[in-house]
Amino acid sequence: MFANSTSGVAVEWAPDTLRVKELEEQLFSMHNSLVCAFNQLLDLKDLNTGYHSTRLAEWGVRVAQELGLEDGVLRDVEVAALLHDIGKIGVPDAILKKPGRLTADEYALMKKHPEYGWAVVRLFPGLERTSFFILHHHEAYDGTGYPGELKEDEIPIGARIVSVIDAFDAMVSSRPYRQGLPFEEAMRRLDLASNKQFDPAVVRCFISIAQAEMPSVFAATGTSTSVVL
Fold first, then answer.
1. Is the per-residue pLDDT at 80 higher than 90?
2. Among the ranges given (16-30, 84-98, 105-119), the one the predictor scored with the smallest mean pLDDT
3. What domains, with CATH codes, occur in the chain?
4. Would the CA dihedral through 56, 149, 124, 157 be positive or negative?
5. Which residue from 123, 131, 157, 162 has the least number of CB within 10 angstroms?
6. Across all residues in the chain, what is the average pLDDT?
């Protein structure tokens, strides 16, 4: 309880205000713990995924900032980037880790992972918008993606950001069955897919960031910065 300096009347709402702030901090802490726990589950499923998701979270926030998105959206983009693949927990390992080309039936099941992720994340208060970013991160700018065949601005901006950075990281990261692409080749492919698979504004923004931070990016991915001819 605090005294009002002008009237001398005791202010009764101060303890309630402090309690609301305390509850908000507890909710925020719970959200952070939840996201970390989900990320640990991804690590248990595939040790490469956790590092991949952490890189995406960092890049996603940078792109969102450069695009001038509000703070609440930055947070949702960060969490969506971390958890965009959480639905892969529902996909059999035989499909996830298959070194060769997937059959039509296997690919159809793999394409369900954004819906699986959305179905889980949407259940948590405060993560509703994040869940839609996860649901639509495989939509294509020209409307040929999945699961909703959304196009252009129909696709949530967070999903458009995750789509670009996810594709880039997948291209440059080495896997046991293949070597990652050189930086310039990955940039070339992003540019070619701009306005088709990817939002051109997001591509331009990300390319600018990636070029400025090329050394640290490739220290993390262990790939070359030049095109192999």
1. yes
2. 16-30
3. 10-221 (1.10.3210.10)
4. positive
5. 123
6. 82
